[in-house]
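Lab notebook, bench 4. The sequencing result for the construct came back, and we need a structural model before the next group meeting so we can plan mutations. Quick request posted to the team channel:

Model the 3D structure of this chain.
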Amino acid sequence: MLMKEYRICMPLTVEEYRIGQLYMISKHSHEQSDRGEGVEVVQNEPYEDPNHGNGQLTEKRVYLNRQLPSWARAVVPKIFYVTEKAWNYYPYTITEYTCSFLPKFSIHIETKYEDNKGSNDSIFDKEAKDLEREVCFIDIASDEIPERYYKESEDPKYFKSQKTGRGQLKEGWRETHQPIMCSYKLVTVKFEVWGLQTRVEQFVHKVVRDILLIGHRQAFAWVDEWYDMTMDDVREYEKNMHEKTNIKVCNQHSSAVDEIESHAKART
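Done. Here's the predicted structure in token form:
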């Protein structure tokens, strides 16, 4: 098991980011879904938890074979997907990733959002007070992203919002910018396979870090697209994008998914 705590600051308020996050996830999933790879939304509906109250439960299949390193592609099926389940009780969320083909693999993410610059060192005391972990700050303006994902229009150093006046973030922006909020993410990766555990867990954390950096950059760079939306507006946008994305992804996978699930049952 390898646990890390990521802290990603944004030039937004927690309430603003509630809309921006939903918009970004839907648009990003649609953009990244192509040639049979991407995100299929299986379930997205209201959910009530006795401890956390009303929220939203989402289940997705993430197809990503082409994005795996060569050593991983050698041991997984040609059509390979990870199941994502997310419980959104904003400003607290839980996300879990599992794979029927790799039963000893899992990712567990707990997220809390606060209006500060990442200064709350006790935010996960209830969940992981005595657990050893590295705290990693991610800077949306200065940290480098993989070159294939870079777009100048989504670079917070150059982007300036027409609707909010925010943007063109300079080095050290987190110390002075208002408003500011932080996404605190406690990420636990498990791959309990002897000989591969360390390599896989470290690789997964690198992927998670890149995804967090790209996603938060996009949420801010697209602020003028979602800033005037209400929660009802963004839920309708989310529904429409899910339908379009499923069409892009699902047609190529219906029979392959049945084959994978049959294979997984046979292994157990």
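Residues 163 and 224 are 6 Å apart (CA to CA).
Will bring this to the meeting.
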